[in-house]
């Protein structure tokens, strides 16, 4: 057998029909997550979920041209429309994935927004959009895709969270214990996030023991959602973990981050590809941490 045929056979065995979806993959950390998954040899299809078709197609072309430097075969790479936080868009994405592949093996929830410090939009007006995209959007999209993930093999959900989501942002011990409770459910988590939003709107959030960051709250909620899904989906063979990419040089940080985005991508890629994966963990800088540290 020639070496190229042997390589093709090995690729087919490893990658056979494995599908990975990365949200917000047209730039920043998400782009490098998609690129590194494409280069891993473990997938036959990589899908970039992006809200802008031109940016999505450009990212696909960029990844495809980088794959040409590798010995063939390499996975197919495509773009599908996704506006995170828009339920109709989530449902359309699910339908496209179902029709094309019938399943998803890896979902990387990377897309998120963060208002800049210098943004003049008042804190209370930043609250709902931040929670709607980063937390509620991520939850709704994931719930939409769970039936496809349950058909996957060694299926994984990787949530790109942040150190900003640490529990210690909440001054109230009572609130901390609610978020960290073993008995928390998705419905209780939504109620807590709704309560935060209401307190922000009414200007009572500081008095009521919440933190000062909408982004931090959205990421804390994503971390807690990770733990809830990990428990709920264990019986379905889906591992659910989250990570922090570190402070990265991307548009989100106005390029102030010290870490190149390709380095930041590695934590999510590791969770998406490592053998003998754990579940329900927070992973940062190559260590599994106590992810609800106080
Ligand atoms: P960027 O702002 O560079 O990229 C964000 C990506 O998400 C873009 O592709 C953007 O698309 C997409 N996106 C945002 N909102 C939506 C939406 N509603 N629907 C669809 N796509 C959307 O951010 P980073 O690469 O820095 O961040 C990636 C992840 O890492 C995020 O979850 C972030 O919170 C997290 N993180 C980042 C850190 C950092 O230092 N950079 C630190 C800790 C966590 P578009 O181009 O259309 O805007």
From TrEMBL:
Keywords linked to the UniProt accession: NADP, Oxidoreductase
Gene3D superfamilies: NAD(P)-binding Rossmann-like Domain
Single GO molecular function: oxidoreductase activity
UniProt family annotation: Belongs to the short-chain dehydrogenases/reductases (SDR) family.
Protein's recorded name: Carbonyl reductase
């Amino acid at each position: 057998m020639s070496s190229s045929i042997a390589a093709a056979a090995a690729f087919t065995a490893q990658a056979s029909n494995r599908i990975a979806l990365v949200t917000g993959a047209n730039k920043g950390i998400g782009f490098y997550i998609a690129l590194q998954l494409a280069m891993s040899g473990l997938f036959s299809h990589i899908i970039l979920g992006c809200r802008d078709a031109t940016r999505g197609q450009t990212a696909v072309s960029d990844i495809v041209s980088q794959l040409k430097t590798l010995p063939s075969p390499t996975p197919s790479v495509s773009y599908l429309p996704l506006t995170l936080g828009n339920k109709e868009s989530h449902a359309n994405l699910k339908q496209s994935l179902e029709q094309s592949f019938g399943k998803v093996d890896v979902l990387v929830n990377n897309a998120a927004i963060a208002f800049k410090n210098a943004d003049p939009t008042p804190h209370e007006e930043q609250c709902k959009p931040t929670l709607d995209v980063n937390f509620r959007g991520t939850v709704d999209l994931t719930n939409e895709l769970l039936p496809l993930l349950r058909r996957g093999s060694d299926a994984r959900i990787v949530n790109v969270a942040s150190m900003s989501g640490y529990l210690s942002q909440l001054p109230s011990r009572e609130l901390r214990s609610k978020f960290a409770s073993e008995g928390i459910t998705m419905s209780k988590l939504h109620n807590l996030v709704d309560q935060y939003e209401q307190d922000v709107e009414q200007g009572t959030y500081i008095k009521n023991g919440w933190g000062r960051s909408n982004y931090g709250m959205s990421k804390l909620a994503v971390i807690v959602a990770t733990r809830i899904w990990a428990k709920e989906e264990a019986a379905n063979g889906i591992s659910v973990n989250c990570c922090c990419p570190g402070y990265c040089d991307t548009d989100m940080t106005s390029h102030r981050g010290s870490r190149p985005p390709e380095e930041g991508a590695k934590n999510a890629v590791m969770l998406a590809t490592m053998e003998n994966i754990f579940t329900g963990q927070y992973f940062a800088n190559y260590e599994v941490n106590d992810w609800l540290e106080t």
